[in-house]
Amino acid sequence: MAQYSRVSGTVGLITLLNPPVNALSAAVRQGIVDTMDKALSDRKVKSVVICGHNGKFCGGADIREFSSPLTGPPLIPLIQGVESAAKPVVAAIEGVALGGGLELALGCHYRIAHSKARLGLPEVHLGLLPGAGGSQRLPRLIGVPAALDLITTGRHVTGAEALQLGLVDKVTDRNTVDEAVKFALSVADQPPNSRRVSTFPCPRHPDLDALFEGAMQRVRQRARGALAPVACVQAVRAAATLPYAQGMERERELMATLFTSGQARAQQYHFFAQRAVGRWSMPSGARWDTTKPGAVHKAMVIGLGTMGRGISVALVQAGVSVVAMETNEKQLMEAKQAISSMLERGAKRRGVAPALDKIGYSSNMEPAADVDLVIEAVFEDMALKKKVFQQLSALCKPGTFLCSNTSGLDIDQLASETRHPELVVGMHFFAPAHVMKLLEVVYGSRSSPQAVATAMELGKQMGKVSVAVGNCRGFVGNRMLKPYLEQAFFLLEEGTTPEFVDQVLEEFGFAMGVFRMSDLSGLDVGWRVRKADGLLNASEGHSARIRQGCRYSPLGDLLCEQGRFGQKTGRGWYQYDKPGGRVAKPDPWLHGFLEKFRTQHGLVARRIDHQEVLERCLYALMNEGFRILEDGIAAGPEDIDVIYVLGYSWPPHRGGPMFYAGMVGLQKVLERLEHYHQEHPDIPSLKPCNLLRNLVVNGSPPVHKWREFLKKPQSQL
Ligand code: 3HC
Ligand code: NAI
Prior knowledge:
By secondary structure, the protein is α/β, with parallel strands linked by helices. About 45% of the residues lie in helices and about 10% in strands. The protein has 4 domains: about 260 residues, Alpha-Beta Complex (2-enoyl-CoA Hydratase, Chain A, domain 1), CATH 3.90.226; about 180 residues, 3-Layer(aba) Sandwich (Rossmann fold), CATH 3.40.50; about 100 residues, Orthogonal Bundle (N-(1-d-carboxylethyl)-l-norvaline Dehydrogenase, domain 2); about 110 residues, N-(1-d-carboxylethyl)-l-norvaline Dehydrogenase, domain 2. An 8-stranded mixed sheet has the order 12-11-10-13-14-15-16-17, sandwiched between helices. About 50% of the residues are buried. Bound molecules: 3-hydroxybutanoyl-coenzyme A and 1,4-dihydronicotinamide adenine dinucleotide. 3-hydroxybutanoyl-coenzyme A binds next to strand 5, helix 3 and helix 11. Its main location: other. Keywords: Fatty acid metabolism, Isomerase, Lipid metabolism, Lyase, Multifunctional enzyme, NAD, Oxidoreductase, Peroxisome. Its EC number is 1.1.1.35, 4.2.1.17, 5.3.3.8. It is found in: Peroxisome.
């Protein structure tokens, strides 16, 4: 709803009231219509201010209403009504003005913003475009290039940047509503005719065609099959080339197409899923809202390789004091330099001073005695990690939380090396750790709720989306990756090429296909893990393509034996112009190697089509997701989907693997898995899991109902 009052004698003050972000629900829209009527019909009122309750202007349309038919007054005529008002209307922007919220402000005649307010049109992240006139008014106000940038990236700008762009008329560091009221008094006698943005001509640009071609190319490259960014460019083009009324018609058509697309549903699901994972619970019944996190003022990071450096930077940027520790002197020196320059770059981007004084370095463990939390990031080697945990347990003060960044080793085993296993949890970051938004927080069988709450809260403080998961090999993300990678290898054996598999997966929307990704992260990583698992040698009398009773592809191992570790060695599944090179080129050597391998093992290459690549890779991955749910390792499908979108470049417009399974149809996924499992009975990961069968038997309920079919989460090894 919206509240109305008259202030300073002649200013009508309208306050949007819908906590927590004053989203434009049907009731709020009705409230605006009613209060505007009041203000305009009150003869004492000379000007109007619109603001939001509790220091937040407006978070945009109410996304929860998108799944049901529209009720209440529609937004477009409402904003038109505000703009055509005969009395000056001023938007008082504090907190946020996003999406429909900013569109409402664009309909006002003046905009006063707090310097720290965040303004933006982030609809593109919800699979939409600014469909309440935003795509037509913004370019008219700030010019086409700046509008294209804001609308296609959905990025927020601060009040201060908004002033530079010409998006707002004035910025203040004081009480924004008071300033807006003063401003409204000062313009009360000025008719707002010349202030209606929809009547502005769109600023001319010397080469519109080149500008839009470039923009379209950029978004297509970034969008990876997403419709919304492309539609955003088309809508802005309409603003630049058509009269306002026709531009609005084009905006309406494009919005209608997007609104009913599966992509918008998927991205809105992702929006709510990111928030739902914060409401975690544990098998014991401990929950996010009943557990108080411990305070973390000072932390220690052990091991300053790829991960430890990024983790240190993320902690410092979150305001935590850090002792960064590394045993290898050369590595310590290099890490020091790398961390300082990452902090400097980050600070420059954010326009603040680098907090170099928040970090100290050590080549021994002693500072552990004085910290609240430790994150271990040494090599992925259980014996080494156990030793580190023993040392920490002896050194740390009582109550220090001990966390491991392991990619998949058993948290319970690490905990059992310590005197207080309840203080041990996994904090699984993703590379680069100061950039990637995902954090898997892994609770072992003895982790205390407070330890989990502390890791979850610390993740949030670092700007991450933290997902609490149970303890099992590879946790959620890497456990699901295993059958996906396996299928890709098997497909190579059966006749396809890395280029074709990657092309199919990239067309689906992954930033990188599985082989390019493997070259980037290094083939040796998986090789070492397989070695530790005793998988590298076939048992006597068995085929080289069977290990531990199941089908196994030795292709990755054979490449590693040749020193082909991927980008870092200049050769992997592709070739690169030099070690460390980034441009992957098909490698005739690899194709010859695959042919030889097939001949050696009596395999006849067959034609493998697009559908088979996609289904075998993705359905095997999804099937493992269902198993993870069945085992209670993830609390719900949202947890898996958030992990995959934020950690594994699953395209957001496809929601995540579990959401996607629902989109494809659970019945179809089940049938195709049955089909492939019949063809390959020696691949257990293709055998449809019971939960999937159970869901299909129960009529394939929508993804938000799956929790009703799940056991309570638990730790399982
Ligand atoms: N509609 C409905 N609910 C919303 C919402 C919205 N626009 N924006 C936020 N919420 C809800 C969240 O789901 C969350 O609910 P929960 O507590 O039940 O989980 C609650 O508000 C608080 O949100 P956050 O946890 O995200 O709070 P933060 O303070 O971290 O962030 C925010 C606030 C920056 C406003 C962030 O919520 C956000 O980015 N919201 C979405 C903004 C947006 O995309 N607006 C465009 C909507 S589409 C539109 O306007 C179409 C138009 O062009 C026609
Ligand atoms: P890395 O090899 O780059 O760095 C490990 C560092 O630990 C080295 O600098 C080494 O000198 C140091 N180290 C070894 N023993 C030590 C000890 N006793 N005390 C202090 N330092 C010691 O490894 P990376 O890639 O950073 O991985 C670290 C951990 O993070 C591993 O457990 C890995 O599985 C995990 N991880 C790695 C990811 C990646 O993409 N690289 C992603 C997520 C997790």
